[in-house]
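Input sequence (218 aa), recorded before submission:
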Amino acid sequence: MAKSRARVMLVDDHAIVREGYRSLLQKQDHLQVVAEAGDGADAYRLYKEAKPDLVIMDLSMPGIGGVEAIRRIRQWDGSARILVFTMHQSAAYAVQAIKAGARGFVTKSSPPDILLRAIGDVMAGRIALSPDIDHELAINRLAGEPSAIDTLSPREFEILRMLLAEKSVEDIAETLHISVKTAANTRYHIRAKLGVASDIELVRLALRQRIIAADIEG
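Predicted structure, token format:
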């Protein structure tokens, strides 16, 4: 009797990127791509419809980003297996994705075998990190200097990401379906946690922590 294939959902706002790793995954006799989404809101909706065994999730997308989408999916299904596949090489993104409920974090600069190995690890219930992220996290632990960004909740991190993308509190409230007052209060709490007094200082901190570069996609 043939072994059933694991059902995979791809989430990335670039169709050509989805096409590339769909082609890679479909060549594996144990994997089958059953759904694709181009943003976080669609990912959440399609997850509930398709109920895949694994989600491979981008982070930077229009509207709701990957960290928020992970948080929502895991809230709906606490056993969801989600692997982040992203251009972001900052350990802070990995920390937030894992806190939100992802089980793996692989950078898009990694060779294909790293992604395939991570898929196997996540499907087996293990945490998977690409070597570059694993190395950076190890250095941070050895230095004994946890990032202030790590103190943020996944929802606060998502709002920080939107603030850094120059979204207004009104835009943030509408996208996340929260009140403008809640969005404004969260911005205040983010600044307080990070010890900054203005959005300019917030951007400088994000540059130092490599939350933004010149902003990379992913």
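Checked by second reader. The CA atoms of residues 22 and 33 lie 7 Å apart.
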